[in-house]
TrEMBL record, chain A:
One of its GO terms (molecular function) is ATP hydrolysis activity. It holds the Pfam family ABC_tran. The keyword RNA-binding does not apply. Belongs to the ABC transporter superfamily. This is NitT/TauT family transport system ATP-binding protein. It comes from Tahibacter aquaticus. SMART domains: AAA. Residues 4-225 form the ABC transporter domain. Keywords: ATP-binding, Nucleotide-binding, Transport.
From TrEMBL, chain B:
It comes from Tahibacter aquaticus. The chain crosses the membrane at residues 12-33, 72-92, 104-125, 131-151, 172-196, 227-246. This is NitT/TauT family transport system permease protein. The keyword Nucleotide-binding does not apply. It is a multi-pass membrane protein.
Length: 275, 261
């Protein structure tokens, strides 16, 4: 059975349709990045998957036991220490205090947080440290499905790269499946095996992309080459409302690793020629 | 937790020198005014303290103090219970909040003396009148704070807790309650002070026992020293509860806030 199977799921906020009915399947161990412009229904899709949204249309089959989630903002409990925040999910699962604190300390240490940092309240932590705590909280429960909602959007490129690499390693170690949403093609290409581009109003899947190499096998050079190729793709540009760029001839410049399978699913608007 | 509270309490007492200096200044000002006005209008602080001590020695102070404390605390506890429950209920539904808002304004604006007159007519001159008046005066403060706490709940945090699988009980304990307490605690401190003041006022006008009634007796006998001794008794009790108990507990409960500042 697939870990996640979405069939005909669509959503309306009042009279406004945010997401047209769509299908999505995620197999165990896979990582998928959903990209798209603001307001295309990415967050709606993620919230519905997490069970935070009432599903009115379609079905979502949940094959996972343990769900971890990293939000765009860290969403830490201000009245709990960093350590207790990391251990929150374990507490919900009935893990004893001593065991969950030991697990949270071990994970926090692996993420570069010292014992002194772990004893601090979130208000005393830097933005980067808060993001680490939020990431550690999601991984502490050893999730089989990890949902990421633009988790590193507010971080500088150095820290972002460090946390992305750490996340990739941890996910590989735990064998967890990942569904992330992001605005950033580079982030998607660093973390995800395949990409799904949403777009249009209401949002719907426009492109499905599968690079030749899995995320864990891509070098930074591969990522940059793939990003260049992606940004030159007419369908991708149309999804984000970018005008066609004649200056970029990606297929001439990109190395072989930049090759990806490309499936056009729809056009962003009837009058646009996307693919 | 208990040990940490005790340590916080001792640290708080030690840091109380500045408060003590402020109080000493107040007493000095009182002494100065007493020397100018004479003992008939304003007895000196030492005389008032001496009278307080003699009241204590004569065994008069404790019984009256306990009667007032019983009424003030009963009214306060009622206000806390009803105010919290009603505030939470009103905060759960949007319609409830809309209906409750003007109610809080009206209740906050209603002078306790008006409640006292009504209570006297309804409940007579027993414990009921001061307890009711205290409750009526403290209730809107507690209710308003609870409602405000409910309305400003962080839905993003609740969603996070749900995503991580916290069932409703730990969700309330971990997410909702600390936020609500941050609103409720300052309001409860204010309400407790109000409770003492209103209890004494209600007794002064309606009862034959308690500190308020003793104050009324001192007034009829034009005994300013005894009147001031009773006032001192109320103030000392308030200071003790506020600085000796509530403030250290509040500091401990809201340590995370101190960091943010």
């Amino acid at each position: 059975m697939s870990l996640l199977r979405i069939r005909g799921f669509g959503h309306r906020y009042g009279a406004r349709r945010a997401l047209a009915p769509m299908d999505l399947t995620l197999e165990r161990g896979e990582s998928l990045a959903v990209l798209g412009p603001s307001g295309c229904g990415k967050s709606t899709l993620l919230q519905a998957t997490a069970g935070l949204l009432e599903i009115g249309e379609g079905t979502i089959e949940r094959g996972w036991q343990n769900l971890g989630m990293v939000f765009q903002e860290p969403r830490l409990l201000a009245w709990r220490s960093a350590l207790d925040n990391i251990a929150l999910g374990l507490k919900a699962r009935g893990v004893r205090r001593r065991e969950r604190r030991a697990a949270a300390t071990a994970l926090g240490t692996r993420l570069g947080l010292s014992a002194a940092d772990l004893a601090l309240y979130p208000a005393a932590l830097s933005g980067g440290m808060r993001s680490r705590v939020a990431l550690a909280r999601a991984l502490a429960i050893e999730p089989d499905l990890l949902l990421l909602d633009e988790p590193f959007a507010a971080l500088d490129i150095g820290l972002r790269h460090e946390l992305e690499q750490w996340l990739l390693r941890e996910c590989l170690r735990l064998g967890c499946t990942m569904l992330m949403i992001t605005h950033s093609p580079r982030e998607a290409l660093r973390l995800a095996d395949r990409l799904l581009v949403l777009g249009g109003q209401p949002g719907r899947p426009l492109l499905a992309l599968q690079p030749a190499l899995r995320a864990t096998d891509r070098s930074e050079r591969d990522v940059l080459a793939l990003e260049t190729a992606l940004l030159a793709d007419t369908g991708f540009r149309a999804a984000f409302g970018l005008p066609p760029d004649e200056r970029v001839e990606a297929t001439d410049r990109a190395p072989e690793t930049a090759w990806f399978q490309h499936h056009c699913l729809a056009t962003p608007a009837p009058d646009r020629q996307a693919c | 937790m208990t040990l940490r509270l005790l340590r916080a309490w001792i640290a708080w007492l030690w840091s109380g020198w500045s408060a003590a200096a402020g109080l000493a200044l107040l007493v000095a000002g009182w002494q100065l005014a007493a020397e100018r006005l004479g003992p008939l209008l304003l007895p000196a602080p030492l005389d008032a303290f001496a009278r307080l001590y003699s009241l204590l020695e004569a065994g008069v102070l404790w019984p009256e103090f306990l009667v007032t404390a019983r009424r003030a605390l009963a009214g306060f506890a009622l206000a806390l219970g009803i105010g919290c429950a009603a505030g939470v209920l009103a905060g759960i539904s949007r319609a409830g909040a809309l209906l409750a808002r003007p109610l809080v304004t009206v209740l906050l604006g209603m002078p306790p003396i008006a409640w006292l007159v009504l209570a006297l007519l309804w409940l007579g001159s027993g414990d009921g009148t001061p307890v009711f008046t205290v409750c009526a005066a403290a209730l809107p403060v507690v209710f308003g704070a609870t409602l405000q706490g409910m309305l400003t709940r962080d839905t993003a945090l609740s969603a996070m807790a749900r995503a991580f699988g916290l069932s409703w009980r730990p969700r309330v304990i971990e997410v909702e309650l600390p936020h609500l307490l941050a609103w409720l605690f300052p309001a409860a401190t204010t309400a407790l002070g109000t409770s003492w003041k209103v209890a004494v006022m209600a007794e002064l006008l309606t009862s034959s026992d308690g500190i308020g009634a003793a104050l009324a007796d001192a007034r009829t006998q034009l005994d300013m020293t005894t009147a001031l001794a009773w006032v001192l008794c109320v103030l000392l009790a308030l200071l003790l509860v506020e600085y000796g108990l509530l403030e250290p507990v509040k500091r401990e409960l809201e340590r995370w806030r101190e960091v943010a500042r």
